[in-house]
Amino acid sequence: SVANPLGSNSRANDVLTFVRWTLPSLVEIFPDFPQRLLIVSGSQDMWRGGLSGRGSLYLHPTRPLVSGNRTSPMLHELVHIASRLHGTAGADWIVEGLAEYYSLELLLRSGGISQRRYNESFDTLEQWSADVQCAATDRSQGKQTARAALVMRALDTEIRAASKGKASLDALVQKLVSNGRSVSNADFRAAAMKLTKG
Asked: Which pTM value belongs to this model?
């Protein structure tokens, strides 16, 4: 369901179409996605994204469904809703990096963008975040989240190579979700090592 105040400049039909197009790919990764989803739009000062409440998100009307760099604010927030992961003790970069990585990955898997544009998008993120390091933080934003998304892509490649294509970053994320909703840097490292080292 999409809800907004009467007279607001809402794109309810665009939002519904976009979500219906991409949701099957999201549910393949996160099969416990809520049966019902509420997307609310209104004034910009009420922005809370996927932290709005269980099975709901707040999307202010100026946010695009797909940004100029082809990441998707909508899919980013839907990944938060789907995983319900939150970082502990400096692990917010993991949660935000996963959401940003999958905002591009889900567009690719659903046929929303081509492989070429997908690759170009990561090139853009790499150039934009070249002057920052991916480091432990309690609040990952902007360039740091872009750098974290690049780490997730590299890790996906490493997992696929180590497993001869039998596993991917999806398996790591599903393991984290099954272990509970909080994730630490140590949890993430241990799950990654298990998939890359056997």
From this structure: 0.92
